[in-house]
Structure formats: C-alpha cells, structure tokens
Amino acid sequence: DKIIDVYSIQLVRSIIGRGLYVLFLDWWYQRFPQENIYVICTEDLRDHPDETMSKISSYLGLPEFDFTNVTNKGMYNVGFHTGYDTVTSWEEIQEKSMEDADDKISNIGYEVELSEELEKDLKAFFKPYNKRLFQMTGVNCNW
C-alpha cells in the first residue's frame, strides 16, 4: 500500500483518472466495431502533425488535403490557450519545453512537479492499463 503525498487530492484524481484511457475506450469498443474507432497518440499529432492529420482524413474518407499551412502555425488548445481560436506557435512551445524540468508533467503552461518516486509509482500503476490499451487498440504510444 502506498500513500500519494501530493498537496491536492483533486490533482491526484485528475492525473490518475484521466490517464486510464483503456477504461473509457472499453465502453466504446463494446458498442462499436473496432474498425469504426480510430485511435492516435497525441505525441504523433504533435511530432508528425501533417502525416497524422492525413491518416485521420484518409480514415474518414475525406479528400486529400495539405495541412502544412495549419500545422506550421503551431498547436491549438494547449496550455492556457484553450479552444481552437488561438494558436500557440512552435517557437512558444519549444521555449516552454526548454523551461520545463524533466521531473514535471507539462501541458505547455501547466505543470506539476513529481518526485522521482511518485513518477516511478505512477508509471508502474499505469503499466498494466496501458498494456491492455495497446492490445485493445493495436496502437502503441511511446509512454
């Protein structure tokens, strides 16, 4: 048994609850055929936006589209810029990433310091859920 020593239980609930993707997707997979669900890793959208957007468009049966003009501007709905009316430039994202220490969970503008022990415990906790997620979806994210 472990006690998570973080100043906010709501924060802990948010980190853990929002990270159990397989529990949410399990419901969808019970109701819809697997071929009707398309799963991507957000890291792919961040690191390979044009390619990822093209794959999504292809899956949806949309005509080919060059997303370069959109993706070159930066990212939407990150950090303190919620919604899709404000873009966070790649330069701002890079600058913020450089400022963040390795021991923080970051969403460009919002970060939580984690001890090495807590990070290790969280990774161990999530490991079986992520394994099940990757088996269920056939998609392996790099976490």
Question: DSSP strand (E) fraction?
Answer: 5-15%
Using only C-alpha atoms, the radius of gyration works out to: 17 Å
Biggest sheet, spatial arrangement of strands: 1-2
With helices defined by DSSP (H or I, 4 residues minimum), what is the helix count? 7
The residue ranges in which pLDDT falls below 50 over 5 or more consecutive positions are 101-109
| Helical content band | 40-55%
> Based on helices, strands and strand pairing, what is the structural class?
mainly alpha
Nearest-integer average pLDDT = 83
Let me know the largest β-sheet: 2 strands, antiparallel
What sort of overall outline do the alpha carbons produce when their principal axes are compared?
Answer: globular
Q: Please provide the count of β strands.
A: 4
State the end-to-end CA separation. Answer: 24 Å
**What is the N-to-C order of secondary-structure elements (H for helix, E for strand)?**
HHHHHEEHEEH
Task: Please describe what this structure looks like.
It contains 7 helices and 4 strands, in the order αααααββαββα. It is mostly helical and 143 residues long. Strand 3 (104-106) and strand 4 (111-113) form a beta hairpin. The strands form 2 sheets. Strands 1-2 form a two-stranded antiparallel ribbon. 53% of the residues lie in helices and 7% in strands. The protein starts with 8 loop residues before the first helix and ends in a 6-residue tail after the last helix. Mean pLDDT is 83; it is low at 101-109. The relative contact order is 0.15. It is globular, with a radius of gyration of 17 Å.
